[in-house]
Specification:
Farnesyl Diphosphate Synthase; globular; 14 helices; 278 residues; 2 domains; mainly alpha; 0% strand
Length: 278
């Protein structure tokens, strides 16, 4: 196994993820358990992104994780027992985490998607499935909250895809659907050459509008009685909407710069959501 001995707290602390930033709103016990779950997500994602592991090694390590969700196995990751502990405290089943592993496995080979329908399946597994586990830890009352988690996950992942177009391209991954590229007259050769032109801007705005649509659907699906429990998720949503708006204002110059919010901007987003919850 690749080195995975760091504690859940250390993995979360050293990550610059917006997800980790949102944990500030959680109580001690739920924050601890979200930290464990986040560390699991981070570790399996790191396996897929590793430049040191061969594809077969990545597949083997992910399979070990899959098996360790059900019971202790030889040479299992150090965090595995803590992850299994979540199953006894919440309505979380191993199959829910296995779905996330399936999503990560979709990144092991060259990545491209012909249609948004195919991309949506990927986004569901790597983001919506994460949301469905997260809301069990956050705690909710209304079953409609599950649709909220699905829609918010899709919105967040599409935003991630737009932000990381250049980085993903460098790693042999293209998440912009071919059908959308063709619709706007932006060829695969243009993307490979990192061509920044008006068709590219229109393509990116189309995908951004799709993300905005899922943000709206998430807002509409969130039950009133669960708004306080979903505060961490709402913080995430606000941070990512601001990131999306930042890219839109700059006309998606993703080949020239990296986008992200400052810690101060993230803090203001947290404060805004906390005040709304009062």
């Amino acid at each position: 196994m690749a080195e995975q001995s760091s504690s859940a707290e250390e993995i979360t602390r050293t990550s610059k993820s917006n997800l980790a930033f949102a944990f500030i709103s959680l109580g001690k016990k739920r924050r601890r358990d979200m930290t464990i779950f986040y560390a699991f997500c981070r570790l399996i994602d790191d396996i897929a992104d590793s430049t040191e592991l061969a594809p077969e090694e990545k597949a083997r390590e992910l399979q070990t994780w899959r098996e360790s969700l059900h019971d202790s196995v030889p040479n299992e990751p150090a965090l595995a027992s803590e992850v299994r502990g979540l199953f006894g405290r919440y309505a979380i089943k191993p199959a829910m985490l296995e779905e996330i592993i399936e999503g990560v496995e979709m990144d092991l080979g060259p990545v491209s998607y012909d249609t948004f329908a195919a991309l949506r399946d990927y986004c569901y597994k790597v983001a919506s499935a994460v949301g469905l586990v997260s809301i069990e830890i956050f705690g909710y009352q209304n079953s409609k909250c599950r649709q909220y988690a699905v829609d918010l996950g899709l919105a967040l992942q599409i935003t991630n895809i737009l932000r990381d177009v250049a980085k993903d391209l460098a790693n042999g991954r293209v998440y912009l659907p071919r059908e959308d590229m063709a619709h706007f007259g932006y060829a695969e050769e243009d993307l490979a050459a990192r061509t920044y032109n008006e068709p590219f801007v229109r393509l990116m705005q189309f995908e951004a509008d799709r993300a905005h649509g899922y943000f709206r659907e998430a807002a509409a699906a969130l039950p009133r009685e669960d708004r306080r429990a979903m505060l961490s998720a709402e913080i995430m949503g606000l941070i990512y909407r601001k990131l999306l708006e930042q890219m839109e204002r700059d006309r998606f110059r993703v080949f020239q710069r990296e986008y992200g919010l400052s810690s101060a901007a993230k803090f203001l987003s947290v404060l805004r959501q906390l005040l709304r919850a009062v």
